[in-house]
Write a structure and sequence with these properties.
Two copies of one chain form a homodimer.
Chain A: H1 10-21, E1 25-29, H2 45-60, E2 66-70, H3 71-75, H4 78-94, E3 99-105, H5 109-120, E4 129-132, E5 149-155, H6 162-165, H7 175-187, E6 199-203, H8 211-217, E7 223-225, E8 249-253, H9 255-258, H10 268-287
Helix pairs in contact in A: 2-4, 2-10
Amino acid sequence: MSTVQRAIDPATRLLRSMDRTGGAVCVGLDPVLDRLPSAIGASDPVDRIRSFSLGVVDAVSEIAACLKVQSACYERYGAAGVGVVSDIIRAAGERDLPVILDAKRGDIGITARHYAAAAFGGAGHGADWLTVNGYLGGETVEPYLERGGVFVLVRTSNSGSGELQQLALADGRTVSEAMADIVAALAAPRIGPGGWSDVGAVVGATHPAEAASLRARMPGVICLVPGIGAQGGRMEDVADLCGPDGHGALFTASRSIIYADPKSGHDWLVAIRDAASALSDASGVVAGLQ
Amino acid sequence: MSTVQRAIDPATRLLRSMDRTGGAVCVGLDPVLDRLPSAIGASDPVDRIRSFSLGVVDAVSEIAACLKVQSACYERYGAAGVGVVSDIIRAAGERDLPVILDAKRGDIGITARHYAAAAFGGAGHGADWLTVNGYLGGETVEPYLERGGVFVLVRTSNSGSGELQQLALADGRTVSEAMADIVAALAAPRIGPGGWSDVGAVVGATHPAEAASLRARMPGVICLVPGIGAQGGRMEDVADLCGPDGHGALFTASRSIIYADPKSGHDWLVAIRDAASALSDASGVVAGLQ
């Protein structure tokens, strides 16, 4: 199994994309059939999802810093759905849009290598980044790094996330802080000239009180930040995650962008572009990139 | 999204399969190309993996209590590989062999529903059980239970698993014990007439000192037990997991069975059948099923 040869490392590519767009927005693709615009012509479910997804890629490619593909929404259509993920990543690549495959994989090392192959190339997909679950320990995260970047789940945005993640350890940390320390240890030797690593973390915007402390625990770790919008999180409340140079957080929004309501006389792609553009501008202000 | 209609629930089906085979063995399918028998005729990688996998299903269907399909080994071949998973699960179903899809999924609730659809039916696969990562909390495990059974990662078999799982909590538990308690709470209202639930746990055979305590913490929770053989775990050292009626543990072995060396004059399928049969017999003795 050979290491994927990339022109630039995932972190550098992402920083450049933030700078080019003047924002820190990741558009999340998690389509469900019953919310797709009626203007999508195809009748087969997988064709509809593909057509919609490729439309979104085209609409946001010059606005978003990154695209996040929610693997589950495609996997539910079996092999045909997984083929759509490859189509999306290929289309994003042609438009120089970095891609996070949001698949939350995690397994022992020998199996992690297979998941890395699936996410990052060869006969699998060609994503830049993969979301990863570190419950099995840091050693199970390392195999991915031979092929791409990772965002490790640290403090997730869902309302019940604290059931395990906020338990208090005997040493005074919480479980999620312990996970943050594992992530920081993996990231430390991999921080590039731009000051950021290809080992990132998922930190929900729904926990503003923890943002400053998690940023301090994880120097050089870019945070992928879900929970904006529908889940009630606000970018300005977790601005600490952006760090001093503004590249430390990537705010991800899905439904508020991909299902944006078209204004009268405009089509759904214009609505998506407008919503992405507004969020990107706002994120650029929060991050200090504009 | 409709609930899958099953003739019997996953736990009852698994118990019956243990009783029928007089053992508690789960054969793990995690094929890699360079270890396949030369007798496999196909040249295309995906065809080789399919041919091998279907051969294993046929060889062990009357011996193993269950089949475990390691999703990563197929996902690395993209959509074509995912199609093979469906082929395997269909073939196992025709032979009345229960299937665990070992994909270690885990995401917020809305996304968990998509993963459940992918694993348990419709346009996705038709597995009986799915391995699940509970780092996001018990609420994210519940959506799967509308459609099938789960084995939640509690104490994994890999050597670095303790980095997070064995951290001490302020209340005296370890992180994995806290996860065991989350699993037990999910399982309690779902224990069937046979005494076991469709909420199971993954507990590695490489931690014998913890077996009795984890069994006590998780009444009615069937443990899927990896780490036998290549990883150094022994069934007899974790026999406590089997519980008083012997149905509480399902011992999973992969490489030691699917790559069993054929005796002179026998083919690879006979070697696999013999290895599965020997382990099933031994497991039946350990569990008290024989």
